[in-house]
Structure formats: structure tokens, C-alpha cells
What does this fold into?
Amino acid sequence: MTGVERADVLVLGLGPAGASAAAEAARRGARVIALDRKRKAGRPVQCAEFVPAIVGIDVGDLAASTRQRIRSMLTFVEGGGPDVKEDFPGHMLDRAAFDAGLVAGAVAAGADCRFGTGVRRIHSVGVAELADGTRIAAGAIVGADGPRSVAGRAIGQANTALVETRQITVPLARPHTATDIHLSAGIPGGYGWMFPKGEVANLGAGVDPASRQRLKEIVARLHASLVASGQVGSRILGLTGGPIPVGGMLKPAGALGAASVLLAGDAAGLANPVTGAGIAAAVHSGRLAGEAAAARAAGDAAAGERYEEELDDVFRVALDRAVRRRRELAAHRSPDGAALRRGWIAYPEYWTT
It folds into this structure.
């Protein structure tokens, strides 16, 4: 095919999943081209920036991008509480710095990382067409391009269940080392949060799409209550938001013509359907996808199947439980405190069968 740029591995998206995939594939000797429609790694930030410490998942060295350590979780149900979960460690990141560090690692490994480059579509023969008309063919394509993945749509694996979020950054009035979770029937399909990050805090909420028009009001009400309690300041320093997939894991491997397609991170539906946490899953799945993509590009026909099995082993049980809890909660028109507690990870009820 003339007029087509070629690579062994094409990575769509340079967030944590894509940058991790690009680095891993390049380290294994593949010629990697990685694309992102953003003009700069990690910017604008569309993330609450909290990474819980998850047993069995290595996110890598977080020291350079950690802005605060988290030690516990406080959960407020319908304004009551707080219920305290003492042992809930994690890191509040500077997400832009974290993403930039992962991209720098991919470049150092030999990946050709390009920003400001959107993908218009992927043809059935496995050739990606960019917004400027450029075409790229690769033996393996890693779709790490978020909840509304172009690669996912191309192989018939699209996230159909999403939560919409809105988040503001505000001054933190006093030191705080816990993640604060606000559960309420008035926040349908999601929850409110306040995550401390040094001298500031990320404060936001997620709701089901039908309640999207209420998001601004919900976040403003939560903000006002925390200002009144003296926990945060009234000034809004930043605003962000975006969709989170909450339908559970998709089939992460497929094919378009001779090209294998592997989905990672949010594109594969790996964000937790209850908490929305997805950074650790993105990094871990990205590394696995990069390894599998390099192997597939080198002629290993079973690499995609192994990748799917590995994701199943690591994520399936937790994601399936979260999907069940989410559906149980959605079945209540106006969930009471008991239903809200059963639907949240801090309570023993969540973990029962």
C-alpha cells in the first residue's frame, strides 16, 4: 500500500495506558508510533488524581509526581458520619507531571510520540487515518484512547455505560490526609468527593448521564457545605470533568484485517464502576498491552488471547462485583442509607456475595 506510514505497533492515546504501552513495546524492540490529540502530555487534567494502593498492581515510581500521601477514607452517608476506614493508603498525584514522566519514559525507550494528532477512524483493513489525512499501518494497534475509544468502536467494543463528572480545585483550609466520600440519593449514579492535595483539594461529583444537567448544582452545594464547615476556601482555582466508563471490562482483543487490536485502560472498561478509579489499571494494562502488541507484531498469533486472559485474571472479579453493586443501587429509585452502604467499598456489606 503506497502513501502509508508503517510501524510495528501503533498506540492511540498517550495517557497512563498508552504511554505505558508505548514504552513496553519499544523496550521489546518494536517500532512504535504513539499518537494523542492533546497538545501536551496530561493537559488538560481530567482526573481526580488519586491512586489507591492496590495489592498486586505496580504503578511504578510515584515519588516525582506525588503531591500528598493519603492514609484513610472518610465516608459521609446522607450528610451523616463520618464513617472512618483507617487503612486506605494511596497517593494524590500531579497528574500532568505523572503523564509527562510516563511519556518521557516511552520516548527514552525509542517510541515516536506525537501530540496534537487526532485519529479520524480506523479502516477495516487496520489502517488508521489521522485528522490531517495521514494513514498509518501497523501489525498491532493499542487502543488507549479513553472511554470513547476509536479503536474500541472499530472492533465493536464500545463503552456504553458512562458516568459524567465535574470537578473544581479549591484552596484547602487545613491539613487533611483522608479521601472524603459523600454518598446520597441526591447524587444519582455516583458520589461526591473531596481529595486533598497539599494546599488545595479536588472537589467534585459523578452522576449518571440522565442527571448531567444537575452536576453544576450538586458540586456547588457540596462546595458551599465544605466552605461553611471551614474545610475549604470559596475560591475556585480550576474546573475539569469528563466521562468515566462504568459498565465493566470489554472484550479487549480483536482484529482488523491483518492488524491485531488491543484495548487498555478506560478504552477496555477497566475503571472501577463504583469508585471510578482507573490510573493503576491503566498503567498495568498498558504494560501488558505493549508486551502483547510487540509479540503480535513479531508474529506471535496467540499474544492477543494471552493478553485477554491476563486482564481477566487481574481485573474480572473486582470489576464484576462493582458492576453488580452498581446495578443493585440503580434498582432503587431513592436508595436509603443501607443501600448506599452496600454499594460502597468502605463497608463490609459491599464485599459480601
